[in-house]
Amino acid sequence: MSSPAQLLAEPLAQPLAQNLVQSVDWLAIAPPTITAVVGLVVLVTDLFVKDARKPLLGWISVAGLAASALMLLPLVNDDRSTFCQPGEPGVCSYTADTFTLAIQFLVLGGALLTALLSVTAVKDADRGLPAGEYWFLLLSSAAGAALLPASRDLATLIVALEVASLPAFALVGLRQGDRRSSEAALKFFLSSVTATAVSLMGISFVYATTGTLYLTQVADRIQRVDGQFTTLAQTGVVLILVGFAFKTAAVPFHFWVPDTYVGAPLPIAAYLSVIGKAVGFSGLILITVVALPSYADVWGPALAALAALTMTVGNVGALRQQATRAYSAVRLLAWSSVGQAGYLLVPIAAAAYSDDPEHSIGSTVAYALMYAAVNLGAFAVAALVGRTRALNRVADYRGLYASNPLTALLLAFFLLCLAGLPPGVIGLFAKVTVFSAAVDAGLGWLAVVMAVNVVIALFYYLQWTALLFRTPEDAPAGHRAPVPLTAAITVTAVLAVALSGAPQLILRFADTGLF
Amino acid sequence: MIDINESVMQVLLAFIVVGPLLGAAAALLPAPPGLKGKSPEQAVLRHGVTVTGAVLIAAIVLVLGFDHDHPSKMQASTDISWIPALDVRIHLGIDGISLPLLVLTALLTFLCALYSYFKQRHERQTPRASSPNPKAFVALLLVLESGTLATFAVLDLILFFLAFETVLIPMYFLIARWGGEGRAGAAWKFILFTLLGSVVMLLGLLLIGITAGTFDMVALATDNGRSLTTSVQVIAVLAIGIGLAVKTPMWPLHSWLPDAHTAAPTVGSVLLAGVLLKMGTYGFVRILLPVAPDGFRTFAPYLAAFAVVGIIYGSLACLALARRGAKGDLKRLIAYSSVGHMGFVLLGVASMTPTGVNGALFANIAHGLITGLLFFVVGALKDRTGTTDLDALAEESGHALYGRAPRLGGLLAFAAVASLGLPGLAGFWGEMLALFGAFDPHDDLSRPAFLTFMAIAAFGTLLTAAYMLIVVRRVCMGAVPQDVPQPKLADVRTYEFAAWTPLVVLTVVAGLWPRTLLGLTDPAVQQLLSGGTR
Predict the structure, then answer these.
(1) Which of A408, A511, B254, B406 is such that its CA lies 20 to 30 A from the CA of A91?
(2) Among B531, B492, B522, which residue's Cα sits nearest to residue B289?
(3) Residue A83 backbone dihedrals phi, psi, to 5 degrees
(4) A436 and B84: CB-CB below 8 Å?
(5) Shortest Cα distance from B326 to chain A (angstroms)?
(6) What is the 3-state secondary structure (H, E, C) of B99-149?
């Protein structure tokens, strides 16, 4: 996948033959490659499998994602790079360093959980969702998302971004005969394509002024841009940022989120809320911290303002959701994911002001890992409740404790983790790292804005939590959990509880060299 | 008093903090065979009594093993690395300042669990419906206990924050589910006020920790603010102070308290007033005074001024509530009186002298004992009469509790008199020492200002006496009407005696032998104020 990008990035003067025999470190690129290959396998298998055996495709995908996630293990503590510029060590297109591995783990683990949710969803939809296409698209998107954090040149970055998002549009609109679904897909598609176009424009400007696409070379050369081109370079920087802000659903580029989440099949909403965000963030981090550290005075304040706006708008939006409105549970999670995106932006903004940007970035990585586990857990419970209550209103969760005590306790735990309040210890500590990144960088005002937001967010999370334990209005519908759903809820619950006991497991990213 | 191995002490302290948490988890599980009791409700409430009892025994053993000759030394201390990335360590330890609060918490929670257990047993015999779902009740009570005990035992700023936040969710649910009228609103007000305060406090704690390079309270106290510039200290004290002041509560940040107290169930009120409020004042003494003395000095006069306003405001509010025809709620009245009492505590802390701080710590404990008792008695009154409305109780001539339930009336009068600061009872010493502290404040503070504060606060004690006596007159005194048949009013029951006697005894003991408490706190306070090592 990255070879075309690689070729594109090569100066034309290079002898082509040397390129073709370039050695490829297959182990390093194994995680995204396996995912992509399994995706193709599923697509082909679909042609030969009878309708009754379609669930097989789901389990192949689950196994493939698990295998790719396992392939991360041999890479730990082993900074590998491949697709390097011959003769120039350290200038590579693909790097598997700590940052890459952490995000790849998030992406593949998140995709695995999404796949578990999807097994049930595809089965329940009963041909409403074409199985072969669904799994192929999901795996392709995951492959792109796994490639993105590893890419170290602008072309690979954009290709990975598109590989991650194009299947996602299709997934959102995949529900056959559902108007809401196609409308959501269209909204998502238009806003995302605009974002990509804007980013590409920015990249072309940066390429024009620096003559390279490799991030490390961009970082070096953009400081010595010819005087008359500085405006062009600056415009390029701003345009790239705008493009990625779109992807992360930062305010004011967030309007597509609630409708898209509601329109999409529930597992896809979960996927977008976690992996979609991870993609945007890792891209943003690579662009800002790796490629453009010298422009910190441009993107620092911009990201800080964006973070403040995003969390405020997201949380106020979530606060305004009415519990009795249709699909309000998913809507609430959608708006809250916008708010959480704001918290994720804070350390990236802080990196601009800090002497040790990797330290701040580590806070984002740690927070994203916590958020991924907990948010997928909440979505898994929502998927469970949504099976019997098709409208999935927040009000439908009333008295869940009476019918499914353990599920209710777990959802309460996930929500309190998102709110960042004990007993959700890991949520609290993740917030503490983000706060400390802001305070460390001297962004006191941003920390105060975030503090206020934490209180606003607590209101709606706790309101939902309290609802779980109220006495049910009508006879409580028992929710029977199919095996894949139970597995997804169990995995996220074990993760969240284990992390609460040993936060160091993810918080160590805030303390080590990432790149 | 008795020689206990240091590692045993460490285990005891760790058990005190973690034990209730494990107990809370166990409470949610079904009872094992052999411990099922007469009903699931009874079994789980008994489980609560067992766990809190074990914690209380551990706390008492800790007192016995505590080296009373060196109360300023951190004892039973454990120091394990937990989250190296954030430099958070599980650092536990007790000294003369935290030990009394630890015991008070363990005692009050045990008494609450005991009270709930017997009350349920008693109510099972009477046809009234018992409280919903005692399982969750016991679990929440135990989590609450764990959070408060941890607050007093941890010596790491981030861990302190974690413990400080742990109490929010259980208290929210205790009020929102087991509370009385207006409970939902009161619970929201409680949690939003405190959370807003505590996130601001977190920013201050982080500022201190990041600037000084450590979150360890002992190291920071030894450093005594030398590695923090004055401006950092001022900002940090402002941020942390707001968080603590909301919890304490300090006027004008107190408005969540009366609602929360009025709506909370008896047990919730007892713990809220007896223990939770102390977490705020403890933070002032443990963190702000030693860690950021320069910053604290800047704000001390303002803190004292707010404290004094709180004293007067609380008393006037109580007087207004106690008036005939004001439809004053007895629980709300006690809540406002807490605002006044905590004002004395803050005044003592703000004086920045050993006398004042000792007084503050003493008043802390005394307020926990006396107000705990008051809420118990008023709760019992509400169980019997169904109301805490003073007008409904007293009608024209007074409720005549002395005549109808003499022991209950006597206890209420005792608690009220102790609360107003009668010499010889616990309430007296703390307030007197706080006033002494304000009379002769730290050299760098303006003496005239503090003299004024002292005078106003002293006037506040008069007001306190006034409203407390009015309450006693209206509730306890009066003639029992002979012509109309009165509904029978049960006097103090055995289990109520069991739950309340320890509080009464300790109130008297602390009043007659203040040295038992001051001997513990004084050396530790001297050391904190002089900068860690002496």
Answers:
(1) A511
(2) B531
(3) 55, 55
(4) no
(5) 34
(6) HHHHHHHHHHHHHHHHHHHHHHHHHHHCCCCCCCCHHHHHHHHHHHHHHHH
CA distance B352 to A375: 47
What pLDDT score was predicted for residue B128? 44
Cis preceding-peptide flag for B252 (omega within 30 of 0): yes
- Summarize pLDDT for A189-205 with one digit per residue, the tens: 888 888 889 989 999 99
pLDDT at residue number A21? 57
Q: pLDDT-derived band of residue B533, with 50, 70 and 90 as boundaries?
A: very low
Contact B296, B307 (CB under 8 A): no
Which single residue is written with the structure tokens 């890792």?
A: A282
Going by DSSP bridges, is the β-strand pair A92-96/A80-84 parallel, antiparallel, or unpaired? antiparallel
Domain residue spans in chain A?
1-197+258-291, 295-515
CA distance B214 to B11: 25
| Average pLDDT over all residues of chain B | 88
Q: How far is A464 from chain B (nearest CA, A)?
A: 13
- B158–chain A Cβ distance below 8 A for any pair: yes
Tens-place pLDDT, residues B91-102:
999 999 999 999
In angstroms, the CA A138 to CA A124 distance is 18
Contacts of A362 in chain B (CB under 8 A): 85
* Interchain pair A507, B172: CB under 8 A: no
d(CA A155, CA A158): 5
Q: Which residues of B touch A370 (CB under 8 A)?
A: none
Q: Which tens digits make up the pLDDT trace of A391-450?
A: 888 888 888 888 888 999 999 999 999 999 888 899 999 999 999 999 989 898 999 999
First to last CA, chain B: 23
Q: Which residue of B has its CA nearest to A452?
A: B196
Stated pTM of the model: 0.92
pLDDT grade, residue B233 (50/70/90)? very high
> CB of B254 within 8 A of CB of B339?
yes
Phi/psi at A356 (nearest 5 deg)? -125, 75
Q: How many helices (H) and strands (E) does chain B have?
A: 23, 2
Binary contact (B162, A504; C-beta < 8 A):
no
Residue A331 has which token pair?
């809507």
- A405 to chain B: nearest residue by CA? B28
Return the residue of A nearest to B208 by Cα. Answer: A439
Would the CB atoms of A436 and B206 count as touching at under 8 Å?
A: yes
Please report residues of A whose CB lies closer than 8 A to that of B175: none
Q: Are B76 and B9 in contact (CB under 8 A)?
A: yes
Looking at beta carbons, which residues of chain A come within 8 Å of B210? Answer: 436, 439-440
Instruction: List the domain boundaries for chain B.
Output: 1-155, 176-482
What is the least distance, in Å, from the CA of B72 to any CA of chain A? 31
**Nearest CA among A409, A361, A406, A411 for reference residue A386:** A411
Task: Please name the helix (run of DSSP H) or strand (run of DSSP E) that holds residue B442, with its range, or none.
Answer: none
Our CA-based measurement puts residue B231 at a distance from the nearest CA of chain A, in whole angstroms, of 14
B479: contact with A, CB 8 A cutoff? no
Measured between alpha carbons, how far is B534 from B528 in angstroms, rounded to an integer? 9
Under a CB-based contact definition with an 8 Å cutoff, are residues A334 and A379 in contact?
Answer: no
Q: In this complex, do A469 and B84 lie within 8 Å of one another by their Cβ atoms? A: no
* Residues above pLDDT 70, as percent of chain A: 94
Q: At what angle do helices A179-210 and A154-172 cross, to 10 degrees?
A: 170
